[in-house]
Amino acid sequence: MEQKMLEKYAHLLVHAGLNVQKDQEVIISASVEQYPFVELLTKTCYEAGAKEVRVEWSFAKKRLLDYTYASAETLGQVKPWEEAKMAQQAEDCPAMLHIMSDGPDAMNGMDAEKFATVTQARQKVMKPYRSKMDGKYQWLIAAVPSPEWAKKVFPTLGEDEAVEALWREIMRTCYVTEDNDPVTARQAHDRYTMAKADWLTKQGFASLRYHSANGTDFTVELIPGATWCAAGETNSTNGAFYVPNMPTEEVFTSPMAGRCEGTLVSTKPLSYNGQMVENFSVTFRDGKAVSCQAEVGQAVLEKIISMDEHACMLGEVALVAKESPINQSGLLFYNTLFDENAACHVALGRGFKEILPDGAQLTVEEAEQRGINDSIVHVDFMVGSDDLSIVGVKPDGTEVPVFVNGTWATA
Amino acid sequence: MEQKMLEKYAHLLVHAGLNVQKDQEVIISASVEQYPFVELLTKTCYEAGAKEVRVEWSFAKKRLLDYTYASAETLGQVKPWEEAKMAQQAEDCPAMLHIMSDGPDAMNGMDAEKFATVTQARQKVMKPYRSKMDGKYQWLIAAVPSPEWAKKVFPTLGEDEAVEALWREIMRTCYVTEDNDPVTARQAHDRYTMAKADWLTKQGFASLRYHSANGTDFTVELIPGATWCAAGETNSTNGAFYVPNMPTEEVFTSPMAGRCEGTLVSTKPLSYNGQMVENFSVTFRDGKAVSCQAEVGQAVLEKIISMDEHACMLGEVALVAKESPINQSGLLFYNTLFDENAACHVALGRGFKEILPDGAQLTVEEAEQRGINDSIVHVDFMVGSDDLSIVGVKPDGTEVPVFVNGTWATA
């Protein structure tokens, strides 16, 4: 990809996405394999006025070796200095820019049981600090292609061509073109999804009913007074507006935890920490996932659902029209950041307390009492299809079509 | 470089160099640009029985941006969690493998004053922990070529050819060939330098006198009862023998701090944290560097000498015969790890308490009282030349030729 386009993309991420403020501390997390783009991002953050930019490097191949050779006890142990670092972070609330690039199969072969044990042990220590930061810092997840990921999306292309093709898709779905101002283009698009979110909030639906010929037959209750969100959020500490996902097409809220019934059938594969789950369905009873069937990755899916007490409940419902540029590409990205913006989806696990009007002020426990699910996981899976219909049911029983044949019922 | 050779080299570093023990923790520090070799090293450490392998990634281009944009105050501040991490390290004494790869000009343009301020501030907090670890952990510094470094050593070659040529030199100087066992080859060579070290220790010289036609005219006092070292050292905690530099050709000791006179003329450039110092001389009076002249990098050299109170005194004198394979290559590596093993050298700053027979048991303060210099810096510079003569003077005044015309006076 040409340097000029990379610079425009970095500018978009730092200004319209993370919205770095003067004298703010920034933490970039990225794979070591993406060091050239990290250099550009670092420079862009400093030019935007960052006080200090730190990078947390990851390396999937090294992590796979850790899981192969080191014990779950060793890997699951949070060292006192790691906890001190997390505590400091929860105090300072730096802006956090996460670059995704690994291929969906990066962690294939990893023992799902061991991964769950390690995650549970680490999250037990780390989660209270993460919860403390909720809503108080700017964050952004964006993508850069690795050869492995690009070859998965474009299996018939050579490695360099595949990377170039994936770069073009990332630019297109983030509205970065040769001759536009991507920040302005992004903001224009965000106004459309934010208008949809406002409409949904004003309807005040008590529940949503999903139906598709693929077997999806599902009802979920919503939280009275909860808002629907799109595109951006506001950092409650400094008032900075940021867009935490790029691309983003979804309009979403957190449903009432423990109040849903029926079956959701997946319409796209799920890549969870480098492990694939494909062609699956999840059945809920009394708000909890009570069974699941996956053609590929059954053990991984079961582990997700049983990761902790509330991983079996929903934390998010999100609506995405089939006209989404990600869906229109016809591509499967094998990456939730993209695929979740191609289709309606739900997430198992942690919800967003920010969707409550007074959410930023609530502790995790208070938000939980109001119906926001809490868990160490947040795993999206896609249920949108070309024939998906969603009906909104008001408290008085009135029914309003929300989605018809995979898109908004009203323009 | 072929995978088989890389594997032999990694095996040499992990087994003959660091000598990783069963259930030992290992920390690898390396540039993000070297991630493929780090993957191989990690696997080799785990196969050798490491309990856990952590990687501390560095990235010179990002560091240069830090020095360009962030304040000295921000960069010099050691966060509480960083100190906690260092304290933990000083407690656990993990094995530390440092991979050098950056080009000598990597930090060109960095403000030497700012760098000194930041280093002083950080070392003030960090140094007590480093001192606490002295002699209690295995460590190794070894090299992997980056394109920038390779092009500096082989300026007339293309980038790929230069990297390949530098790999060949690294393999050759570390005694790794297609068909040998590099661990055995290494050990055979180490016996030669260790015999020289034993001979010097037994001579019990009170001082050494250096002379060369280039202007070097210098005398340094030695510490009574101190030993000379070569090749390897023993971790006093677990008894593991390790070789902390690869390649290594030097026979060295720490001289009596504050007891030297005269002028040393450099015979190779010095690359200090990515900044070059070339064609320089340093004059000592009453054991302290009182003046220095450099054609290139005068400010950098002055900063080194004044980094702290004892940076102006010597911590090391080392003898390397002109037959060294590094010297025989006729190449200038622009990297101290190589160039110091091509020629006799001295180091400004910190000495080695391990050269005292009871050194491992001494605190830094106790070692200092016995004549071992202490400083936050340890900077080697080369003074060996084809005509260098070194005469050893015994306590009774007897003179014994040690070096004649740049090599050992006796075989």
Model description:
The structure is a homodimer of 411-residue chains. Chain A is an alpha+beta fold and 411 residues long. The first copy, chain A, contains 13 helices and 20 strands. In chain A, strands 5, 6, 11, 12, 13, 14, 18, 19 and 20 form a nine-stranded antiparallel sheet that branches. In chain A, helix 2 links the parallel strand 1 and strand 2. The model of chain A has no long low-confidence stretch (mean pLDDT 95). Chains A and B meet through helix 2, strand 2, helix 3 and helix 5 of A and helix 2, strand 2, helix 3 and helix 5 of B.
The interface involving the most residues is between: A-B, 34 and 34 residues
Estimate the strand proportion of chain A.
25-35%
> How is the biggest beta sheet of chain A arranged?
9 strands, antiparallel
As a whole number of angstroms, the C-alpha radius of gyration of chain A is 20 Å
Residue stretches of chain A low in confidence (pLDDT < 50, at least 5 long) are none
- The count of helical stretches of chain A stands at 13
Oligomeric category: homodimer
Helix content of chain A: 25-40%
Structural shape of chain A: globular
The number of distinct β-strands of chain A equals 20
SS-based class of chain A: alpha+beta
How would you state the average pLDDT of chain A, rounded?
95
Terminal residue distance of chain A: 36 Å
